Amino acid sequence: MSDIENKNNEDIVEDKILPIFIEDEIKASYLDYSMSVIVSRALPDVRDGLKPVHRRILFAMNELGMTYDKAFKKSARIVGEVLGKYHPHGDSAVYNSMVRMAQEFNTRYMLIDGHGNFGSIDGDSAAAMRYTEARMSKVTNELLEDINKNTIDFRKNFDETLDEPVVLPAKLPNLLLNGATGIAVGMATNIPPHNLAELCDGIVALIDDRNITIDGLMEHIKAPDFPTGGIINGRQGIIDAYKTGRGKIQLVGKVDIKQTKSGKNQIIITEIPYQVNKAKLIEKIADLVRQKKITGISELRDESDRDGIRIVVGVKKGEEPELILNMLYKYTDLQTTFGIIMLALVKNVPRILNLKQILNKYLEHRYEVITRRTEFDLEKAKRRAHILEGFRIALDSIDEIIALLRSSKDPGEAKERLMSEFGFSELQAKAILDMRMQRLTGLEREKIEQEYNELLALITDLQSILDSDQKKYDIIREEVIKLKTTYSDNRRTSIEDKRNDIDIEDLIKEEEVVVTITNKGYVKRVSADTYKLQKRGGVGVNSTNTIEDDEVKNIYTVKTLDRLLVFSDKGKVYNIKVYEIPEASSKARGKLIGNIIDLDADENVSAILSVANANKSDEIFFLTRLGIAKKTKLDMFENINKNGKIAISLKDDDELVFVALSSGKDDEVFVATIKGMAIRFKETDVRSMGRTAGGVKAIKLRQGDKVSSACIIDSTKNEKNLEVLTVSTFGFGKRTKLSEYSTQKRGGTGVKNFKISAKTGDVVESLLIDNSDEEREVLIITKDGTLIKTRIKQISTISRYTSGVIVIKPRLGDYVSSVALSMEVEEEEEKENE
């Protein structure tokens, strides 16, 4: 390349590069960004009280014809319409904005009528937009009315293919009605919602007296009115906000202190402050109890339902409820501060406004809307009157008109001749050509004359409105009064000058735990996560330090909130909650269960049953060491006092081995013995008996044999997936297809279940498993407290005549004492939070 060409290129580059200071560029760019956030995203317009995203949502729904009296449409359809046409941002931003307008706990007068899961005051998110449906609520019509009458300005959308409104006509005073919250750059708005009836009274007062003071307006507009109710403590914050645009008000929940029949005091919370998460409020109270910051609470109960909020806080005897309440106010969101900043866009400029200024801006907007609507209606009326004038002239000369039309070769010529020969305007000529022949009848002529006279009166009336400011304000006044009549409701938030049963279980974290009990009655619970998974065949880990001559008897997997029925070797039953069993480390001994329930001195625990997921129609199935079976209705064990009650009558040399819930109808029972035999029979072979009955024979035992365990075969499950998991005293285990055990009549000797030898030891436990859930775990514990936790899938599936594989290797002198399965994982419905 020549030097001349190089020089020319350098000149071109130099011409395009402009040196600037980076500080100036940053300032300019940040200012542009700030104004975009302020005007186009975060702050509401003072006229309709809406941010752009809310305005676009309502406009799009209006364009789709989704009024309150039409069918619901999928939320995803609405979001797609808004994104594709007006709001080129994230779908979650649009959907979340729409959801908020449909939440009764967030919006005082809901603008969207939601159908489906739109979230809750507990902080639950709305369902995914593909699941929910929506339409505009009835009150929203008042924001959009007359939008097609040239009442507001439109602008091009983001790709300049469609028009969108700059502001809505907004007959409702929406900025104060529903309030607004937004954080822009360097500024924020936080306008509280108000009561419609009070706002309407205030607007009427302002129309009647344009010089009214803010104090005068406050005689009508008392204070903010929040959708969740509550109480505003003190008036100074309200006065500050209404006079300066800024103020702080203290919100507290609505609380009653009541005394129960037993003499205990209860704090009952029926309303909570605005935007407080009810579930988190309860959780906070629970944390305070756990941390012993508040020690006077005996129970915490959420009795909320669709009729409203009701949180019951039980107060311990001897505690002062007022003191507890004061502590709740101090440490929880039962008392909050709402900082009012009445910032809104006025002609795209953010301004902090007082109460009267906001109402004046509303009136100015409505004045303009009424003016433009009247001009639109006047133009339309004049246009129609002009056409009717042509009809009147045409009807007076109908014969000549018809002759003219017959002699014209086409409509264009006919129109030109009508205009030239009769003096019609182009609009009149076209209307005459389009006129139907039936308009020539006498009755139709009268209708034309009547319509024409009515239009003349309307034109006179509309013109008088345009010529009179007072008439425009009279119309606004009438509309506001009609709004009050149609939509007003009672105030929810009260104003005060001063502030002159979920059980205790809800303070407990619900989780899966392992409960162990020894022969001497030491019991404890340990989180299931404490025990790590191991491969089968290991020696396990030490899980319990037993005292001399004591052994681990049983192991159970339950949840902390489960209700347990504890059965003793004397045939009695006791009631206990899992969380009442002391939590301990994996190696701790635990606590004597006799210190938790009132066992007799010579009474020991034989079996434990969780009834957390029981149905009222269920029955309890009992099986003893000597093979005696019995079943009793679960409802017979509803009310168990501290001293327990009789559950089964046992022989002196017998003991309870197994208890479980059954349907009482179509289930089957599987009974295994220590010497490797098993029987399968229908549950209906054992009739339902009373609590004190002894039972009937389930299996005929050979000499020296005893029942080791049993399980209920759920009739609703697919037998092809069911297997029997058997574990022996020296740690051998196997899985066997349930189908290998044929159903017999109860009382028989059964069939071979496990090959017993000196190497395997006797059968400890036979449990029913579902092989479709291979991630489920089995926990095996020895008499000395060594525990192994492994996946079921690591244990081989083989025939019932075999001994199985090594699952755990007990140390010398130790042996397996109990086996338990981890809890089944309940399938949860898919919930997407977008």
Protein model, in words:
The protein has 18 helices and 41 strands. It is an alpha+beta fold. The chain has four domains: 50-169, Topoisomerase II, domain 5 (Alpha-Beta Complex); 254-333, Gyrase A, domain 2 (2-Layer Sandwich); 367-495, Topoisomerase, domain 3; 508-821, DNA gyrase/topoisomerase IV, subunit A, C-terminal (Neuraminidase), CATH 2.120.10. The chain has a four-stranded mixed β-sheet. Helix 15 (411-422) crosses helix 16. The model is unreliable at 500-504 and 826-834 (pLDDT under 50). It is an enzyme of class 5 (isomerase). GO terms for molecular function: ATP binding; DNA binding; DNA negative supercoiling activity. Belongs to the type II topoisomerase GyrA/ParC subunit family. Its EC number is 5.6.2.2. One of its GO terms (biological process) is DNA-templated DNA replication.
In short:
The protein contains 18 helices and 41 strands. It is of the alpha+beta class and 834 residues long. The C terminus is likely disordered.
Q: Please state the structural category.
A: alpha+beta
The level-1 CATH class of the largest domain: Mainly Beta
Instruction: Please give the largest β-sheet.
Output: 4 strands, mixed
* Helix run count: 18
CATH topology of the largest domain: Neuraminidase
Radius of gyration: 41 Å
Write down how many β-strands occur, each being a DSSP E stretch of 2 or more residues.
Answer: 41
The dominant shape is: elongated
Q: Level of helix content?
A: 25-40%
Question: How many individual domains?
Answer: 4
Indicate the low-confidence ranges by residue numbers: 500-504, 826-834
Chain-averaged pLDDT: 86
Strand order of the largest sheet: 14-9-8-17
CATH superfamily of the largest domain: DNA gyrase/topoisomerase IV, subunit A, C-terminal
In whole angstroms, the N-to-C terminal distance is: 59 Å
State the CATH architecture of the largest domain: 6 Propeller
Strand content: 15-25%
Oligomer state of the chains in this structure = single chain
